[in-house]
């Protein structure tokens, strides 16, 4: 009876990965028959085949889940319609509650039938036995056996806790349960006293901003967190996860962040291979509709690096919602996992981000200054200009206030706090992070990210002459035009390198540098062009085109 109850309440099983004959070992879980442990010995993996009763019951419950999701998103309009029609009176609501209760009882009955179908399936009984054993005892053998299954990640045991590093328990400077530290926007009116009357006046605007951010805003900014989209992508995500496990020998893990969110990760270890770059770990930060199963992790994998991918809060197996604070909390536990559990030193970690993933990558670079390098692909400096682009002009004040208070993705500000090597990759036909049209390459916000970084690190070089010539270089839409501008100003790379190395030897590596202070205008132009060319690579593609492995290069450094 206990096993039947476990089958009723157990998670949905999607796929079974089977070990090769040479790697197969007898089961160590009591009650797991050997004849069931290794079926289909000729197959490396197989989709779980539910019995008819489980299959049909699952279909009914999945359909009910989709209807519930549609009802949830359309509930404001439904309530408004019912109110206008007078259906929200007590005499109408009571019969409706009876119908809803009857429907819930029917769905509970369907769930019980599904449990019976699972109970009659030896594959599912074997899986639930291993899952229960792993929850009781987190031994390496139990986890190894559980890794052969792909199932609803909510039931996966936690592999790493944010407080697990001993330094976190002893130090008061680490993250608390409210979250890690973020850079906060400056007050708009410094000279105005924030009196009680002013607070009352601002209250309606603050409430409106909160409602917009937590309803429409968050879903527009992170469409990958919408349940219906995830449901539609489920077959693709399962295939991508199977590829990572089967072909790349990836290891899945659940991390518990300081805010209680559970973060879904996948680690591919290349340290034991002949690839020298396998000693380096690339932590990948996906875009606003990206998942590690089908996202940018493929680029460093093809290049031979060890890779750690993770999903945003609210994406696929990760719980929570992807607000900036939750994003930073998730990134913090991912980095801690890489250092304290996977055994990588910060000097061996590279942060690679695509699009909106630049926020978490720059936060980690700011918070972990010893990290080796940062690569930002198709990223931007600040969210406000991009948000204003897609919203009506009459909403400018509301949009700016909402972003600054609740969705403040201040990538450039965070990146300027990092002292290490940085490479920006600009898509020349980017249709997402341009504020006008894709053909207008100067409206690409990657340009502003580069300019802010260079102006922070080399303020004397990026004075009027340097800033002007870098903007001319950024206007080039082809490699031929870039080379033409570069040669027009006769940039002597050896001279630029000698100037920078001499300054570093005398003053140290910490930015900002005052190099260029006593330099001619021509010298500043040469240095500015040289630095811009070393910090930004162009990629002739649209925003969502996968980056080829040959374009994945380490940032320049002296």
UniProtKB/TrEMBL annotation:
Query: Which class of enzymes does this protein belong to?
Result: hydrolase
Q: Does the keyword Transmembrane apply?
A: yes
Please give the chief subcellular localization of this protein: membrane
**Membrane-spanning parts:** 60-84, 96-116
Location of the Phosphatidylserine Lipase ABHD16 N-terminal domain? 3-152
Membrane topology, as annotated, equals: Multi-pass membrane protein
Any single Pfam family the record assigns to this protein: ABHD16_N
Report the GO terms under cellular component: endomembrane system; membrane
- Protein name in UniProt: Phosphatidylserine lipase ABHD16A
Family recorded in the similarity comment: Belongs to the AB hydrolase superfamily. ABHD16 family.
Q: What is the species of this protein?
A: Odocoileus virginianus (White-tailed deer)
Q: Record's Gene3D superfamilies?
A: alpha/beta hydrolase
Q: Where in the cell is it found?
A: Membrane
What does the protein in this record do?
Phosphatidylserine (PS) lipase that mediates the hydrolysis of phosphatidylserine to generate lysophosphatidylserine (LPS). LPS constitutes a class of signaling lipids that regulates immunological and neurological processes. Has no activity towards diacylglycerol, triacylglycerol or lysophosphatidylserine lipase. Also has monoacylglycerol lipase activity, with preference for 1-(9Z,12Z-octadecadienoyl)-glycerol (1-LG) and 2-glyceryl-15-deoxy-Delta(12,14)-prostaglandin J2 (15d-PGJ(2)-G).
């Amino acid at each position: 009876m206990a096993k039947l109850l476990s089958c009723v309440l157990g998670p949905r099983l999607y796929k079974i990965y089977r070990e090769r004959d040479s790697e197969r070992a007898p089961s160590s879980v009591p009650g797991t028959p050997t004849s069931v442990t290794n079926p289909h010995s000729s197959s490396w993996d197989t989709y779980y085949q539910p019995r008819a009763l489980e299959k049909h019951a699952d279909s009914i419950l999945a359909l009910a889940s989709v209807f519930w999701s549609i009802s949830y998103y359309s509930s404001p309009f439904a309530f408004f319609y019912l109110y206008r029609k007078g259906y929200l009176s007590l005499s109408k609501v009571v019969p409706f509650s009876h119908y809803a209760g009857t429907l819930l009882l029917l769905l509970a009955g369907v769930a019980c039938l599904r449990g019976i179908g699972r109970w009659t399936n030896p594959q599912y009984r074997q899986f639930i036995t291993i899952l229960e054993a792993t929850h009781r005892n987190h031994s390496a053998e139990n986890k190894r056996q559980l890794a052969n299954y792909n199932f609803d990640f909510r039931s996966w045991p936690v592999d790493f806790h944010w407080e697990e590093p001993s330094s976190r328990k002893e130090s008061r400077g680490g993250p608390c349960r409210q979250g890690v530290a973020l850079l906060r926007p400056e007050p708009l009116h410094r000279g105005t006293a924030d009196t009680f009357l002013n607070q009352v006046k601002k209250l309606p605007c603050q409430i409106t901003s909160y409602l917009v951010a937590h309803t429409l805003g968050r879903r527009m900014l992170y469409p990958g967190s919408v349940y219906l989209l995830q449901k539609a992508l489920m077959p693709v995500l399962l295939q991508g996860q199977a590829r990572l496990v089967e072909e790349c020998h990836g290891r899945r893990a659940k991390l518990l962040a300081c805010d209680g969110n559970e973060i879904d990760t996948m680690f591919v270890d290349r340290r034991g291979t002949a690839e020298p770059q396998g000693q380096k770990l690339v932590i990948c930060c996906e875009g606003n509709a990206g998942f590690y199963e089908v996202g940018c992790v493929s680029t460093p994998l093809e290049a031979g690096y060890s890779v750690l991918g993770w999903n945003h809060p609210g994406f696929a197996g990760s719980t929570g919602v992807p607000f900036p604070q939750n994003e930073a909390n998730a990134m913090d536990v991912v980095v801690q996992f890489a250092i304290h559990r996977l055994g990588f030193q910060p000097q061996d970690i590279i942060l690679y981000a695509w699009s909106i993933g630049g926020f978490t990558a720059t936060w980690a670079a700011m918070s972990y200054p010893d990290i080796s390098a940062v690569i930002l692909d198709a990223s931007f400096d600040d969210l406000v200009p991009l948000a204003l682009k897609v919203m009506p002009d009459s909403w400018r004040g509301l949009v700016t206030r909402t972003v600054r208070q609740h969705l403040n993705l201040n990538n450039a500000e965070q990146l300027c706090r990092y002292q290490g090597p940085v490479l920006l990759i600009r898509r020349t036909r980017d249709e997402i992070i341009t504020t006008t049209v894709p053909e207008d390459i100067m409206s690409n916000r990657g340009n502003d990210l580069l300019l802010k970084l260079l102006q922070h690190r080399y303020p004397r070089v990026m004075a009027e002459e340097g800033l002007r010539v870098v903007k001319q270089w950024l206007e080039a839409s082809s490699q031929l035009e870039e080379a033409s501008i570069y040669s027009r100003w006769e940039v002597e790379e050896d001279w630029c390198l000698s100037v920078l190395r001499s300054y570093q030897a005398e003053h140290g590596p910490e930015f900002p540098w005052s190099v260029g202070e006593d330099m001619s205008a021509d010298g500043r132009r040469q240095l500015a062009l040289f630095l811009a060319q070393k910090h930004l690579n162009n990629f002739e593609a649209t925003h969502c085109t996968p980056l080829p492995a040959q374009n994945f290069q380490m940032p320049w450094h002296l």
